[in-house]
Specification:
alpha+beta; 18 strands; 9 helices; 5-stranded antiparallel sheet
Length: 391
């Protein structure tokens, strides 16, 4: 008999706020089961649908031609608009399926896609589309993230906003973006979800050019999380930045993650990079700069959490590519199907969802810790400090 820990179930994410996603890109439905949602949370489909609509395909001429409404239905875990504390089942139908688009690719693994690795790992793979490696899998994540986000907003006032900060070699001017006030309405004012309109116009032209050439381009998503409580993260191996990196790099097509100053911080001296403390209104400590990205020692410090996620150019393109069959015979592949020339604008709600799932899970873990520990030993200062930063 072999004992397998929860972490071995690879379609499940989280410890207390736990999400299991299911479904394939051309199956009948996709969805998720959420366990650990606190009871008496007001929740209806209207709380979940907006983020799914932001993620759905067919939003503009720059995205895939697959047209899905991605309409969610709550199947369990709520009554009279309130959560019951029991598992919540969410389901979304796949209505615009075209599995026959992939018939001619059954003997040829698509370059840089997951066809070869899934076949090698499991001995079988989904015959249509990417199966579980498809971005359709992220519907369950986005739906669960919307639930997590509502609880975080009501309980702690947490706000999570992501945006496209670069595509190809075109970068948004960060000086034009106010991280303290940026909201989703501003992000959604253009189809590429870049709040720097000058950069957005150039990105739109670049993506249109790639689509015309039956090619693709990658980009970077920046995410900011405001009003995050102090004390989230579980050192040593489940530090907050480690959990966020895990969450983000589990999203299809991701190739990089950095937090705060990231790799650019390696070019600074310690005297430039350190974040000095000061006393904020309300008696809590804050930092005058935020090179740490809101996390120090793997634990949130109360400042805005800022991180970036890199997405590669989508692997499936319409250009003919010289490659090989599964048996090693030379082959020319001209992929069919409906695919995005760039996925970063549709990745925005996915990044926000995964951030919300991490935040909700770590909040519940910290609440459990605080509820279980006894009096804080030491001086009066220690007791006052613990009370001041209690969730």
């Amino acid at each position: 008999f072999t004992c397998i820990s929860d972490r071995s179930f690879m379609s499940t994410f989280g410890t207390l706020f736990k999400v299991t996603t299911y479904g394939e890109s051309h199956g009948r439905t996709v969805g998720c089961i959420i366990d650990g949602v606190p009871p008496c949370l007001p929740l209806t489909e209207a709380d979940i649908q907006p983020q799914l609509s932001r993620r759905r395909p067919g939003q503009s001429a720059l995205n895939t031609g697959r047209n899905e409404a991605d309409q969610v239905t709550i199947q369990s875990g709520t009554e009279h608009g309130l959560t019951l504390g029991s598992p919540i089942g969410l389901i979304v139908p796949n209505n615009d399926q075209r599995p026959t688009d992939y018939k001619d690719m059954s003997s040829v693994p698509r370059p840089s896609h997951a066809d070869f690795t899934y076949q090698a790992k499991y001995g079988v793979k989904s015959a249509s589309g990417g199966g579980r490696s498809s971005a359709r899998e992220t519907i369950g994540r986005v739906a669960a993230g919307a639930v997590a986000e509502k609880w975080l907003k009501l309980r702690f006032g947490v706000e999570i906003v992501a945006f496209v900060s670069s595509v190809g070699n075109i970068e948004a001017d960060q000086s034009k973006i106010d991280f303290a006030t940026l909201n989703r309405e501003t992000v959604d004012q253009n189809i590429v979800r870049c709040p720097d309109q000058e950069a957005a116009d150039k990105i739109i032209a670049l993506v249109a050019e790639a689509k015309e050439a039956q090619d693709s381009v990658g980009g970077v998503v920046t995410c900011i999380c405001r009003n995050v409580p102090v004390g989230l993260g579980e050192p040593c191996f489940d530090k907050m930045e480690a959990l966020l990196a895990h969450a983000m790099l589990s999203i299809p097509a991701t190739k990089g993650f950095e937090i705060g100053s990231g790799f650019a911080g390696t070019k600074l001296r310690g005297s430039q990079h350190n974040d000095p403390y000061y006393l904020k209104e309300g008696g809590k400590l804050g930092t005058t700069t935020n090179n740490s990205g809101g996390i120090q020692g793997g634990i949130t410090n109360g400042e805005t959490v800022v991180f970036r996620v890199a997405f590669k150019p989508p692997a499936t393109i319409g250009q003919q590519q010289q490659t090989s069959t599964y048996l090693g015979e030379a082959a020319n592949l001209e992929a069919r199907g409906r695919h995005d020339p760039c996925i970063v604008n549709r990745a925005i709600p996915i990044v926000e969802a995964m951030a919300a799932l991490v935040m909700a899970d770590t909040c519940l873990l910290q609440l459990a810790r605080q509820a279980s520990h006894g009096p804080v030993p030491g001086s009066e200062l220690s007791s006052q400090f613990a009370e001041l930063y209690k969730l």
